[in-house]
């Protein structure tokens, strides 16, 4: 498989957010359903959303893609959205049975190449459901005990018409290089989508 992704490089956070903001407003149509991730990577973009709530943004149906479902941090990702996207909560669809699909996906990348909680080792055709979090993911999130997540999978995201992957930081650089060379990680499969754009602060 030859990757045909478009890569946009932002030399600093301001430029990185500008690329993401422009993509959202050029590639998403009013009223569409959009998969959205929690986490530190999209936070600067969401803060611009709340500062500049455009007509497009106010028209979208935003779909949570994953959450922690066991242990003391159960529901933490929902709490993230309640804090960071408070003006848009009436537009949020909280993750449930993983049967709904979206026309657009905005995604991040995990430290081991996972997408949402679709961990390496899960089949490419995984659409969604309950999964045990890998040791790498638990360590990154500071979880000291076996933990389960509820998540959409790559097979659901690949049904979107367009995908934006947001990735930044040195820890993600090596995993993206591995993704395009070994082509066996969940993010590798996402990069095969015919209409995927990557916004990053590094080239790979």
Written description of the protein model:
33% of the residues lie in helices and 21% in strands. The protein is α/β, with parallel strands linked by helices and 204 residues long. It has a single domain, classed as Rossmann fold (3-Layer(aba) Sandwich). The strands form 2 sheets. Strands 1-10-9-6-2-3-5 form a 7-stranded parallel sheet, covered by helices on one side. The longest helix is centred in the first third of the chain and has 15 residues, at 13-27. The protein is globular and about 40 Å long. The mean pLDDT is 95.
Give the averaged pLDDT, no decimals: 95
Q: Please give the CATH class.
A: Alpha Beta
CATH fold category name = Rossmann fold
How far apart are the first and last residues' alpha carbons, in Å?
17 Å
Helical content class: 25-40%
H/E element sequence: EHEHHEEHEEEHEHEHHE
CATH-level-2 architecture: 3-Layer(aba) Sandwich
